[in-house]
Amino acid sequence: MCGRYASSRSPSDLVEEFEIEAGNVRESVQEVGQNFNVAPTNEVLAVVERKNREVPDETVRKLTTVRWGLVPSWAKDTSIGSRLINARMETVAEKPAFKKAFAARRCILPADGYYEWYTAEEKKDGKPVKQPYFIHPADGGVLAMAGLYEIWRDKSVADAESDEAWLWTCTVLTTSSTDDLGRIHDRMPLLVERDRYDAWLDPRSSDPDDLLQLLVPAAPGRLEAYAVSTAVGSVRNNGPHLLDPLPPDGSPPTGGEDGSTLF
After folding, report:
1. Fewest beta carbons less than 10 Å away: which of 62, 172, 248, 257?
2. Rounded to an integer, what distance in angstroms lies between the CA atom of residue 125 and that of residue 218?
3. Residue 136 CB: number of other CB atoms within 10 A?
4. Cα 213 from Cα 215, distance rounded (Å)
5. Which residue ranges does the record annotate as region Disordered (predicted)?
6. How many CA atoms lie less than 13 Å away from 121 in the CB half-sphere?
7. How many H helices and E strands in the chain?
């Protein structure tokens, strides 16, 4: 599964990468800022494409914010979101929680890379040792993770025209890991290649078979992985130092660039 990732690209970089007009960037995007330890329930950046209300045959691509942890439109409350941070490619077109979003509300979740934990055979104090790895594009480009989003009506807010009446949430699609990354974890995020951005985001497309063919696991050698400090395991820790590779001897870094202590 994908349970943590890093997202530090500026809105201007993402606008260029995903060909979004400057006027289609939601104000809340500026409030998110860099996050090197994105965790479930965090507000995250998402690229979505919506039908143009004024011109039905056209669509508008936007950079917006959503909460990580999908809340289906039929949910009684938002608590279900913490259990729906990932959607398996193998069942996404049939699962009630994801089926409607997969057909019409697909998104791209931009990332620098994601974290995954490798469980070693050795034990410490009787418990298996878990080593986090940071997995990222080898070329330093944007990791365009395939996602779904939903819009949930908060009925406790009487004014349906208010932004507070609607909660936007998302989930990350996952698949079996490629051989070179499978040694770390058996699941990985699905990626959307640049030449498939348009087809994946288009809300007018809904055929499950066509959509699934757009998604691919990373090609061998496309992603690189290296061990990082266990500090990433705590949501209290944040900053670019979380991306620092462990020293050759395997000992943790002594501190981050901002002077914080890692543990």
Report:
1. 248
2. 36
3. 21
4. 6
5. 238-263
6. 1
7. 6, 12
Q: Are 35 and 6 in contact (CB under 8 A)?
A: yes
Q: What is the mean pLDDT of residues 20-24?
A: 93
What is the pTM for the complete model shown? Answer: 0.90
Phi, psi of 85 (to 5 degrees): -85, -20
- What stretches of the chain adopt beta strand conformation (E)? 4-7, 35-38, 43-51, 59-68, 86-88, 106-111, 113-124, 127-137, 143-153, 166-176, 187-189, 223-227
Provide the 3-class DSSP secondary structure of residue 15: helix
Give dist(CA 149, CA 63) in Å, integer: 13
- Per CATH, domain 4-113+141-219 is 3.90.1680.10: yes
Tokens of 108: 């791209």
Cα angle: 67, vertex 108, 44; to 5 degrees: 25
Residue 207 · residue 12 · CB < 8 Å: no
* Confidence class for position 252, pLDDT limits 50, 70, 90: low
Three-state DSSP class for residue 189 = strand
Annotated domain spans of the chain: 4-113+141-219
Cβ pair 122, 144 in contact under 8 A: no
- Contact between 242 and 235 (Cβ < 8 Å): no
Q: Are 107 and 203 in contact (CB under 8 A)?
A: no
pLDDT attached to residue 261:
29
- Closest CA relative to residue 116, chosen from 260, 224, 8: 224
- For the stretch 222-237, pLDDT in tens is 899 999 999 999 999 9
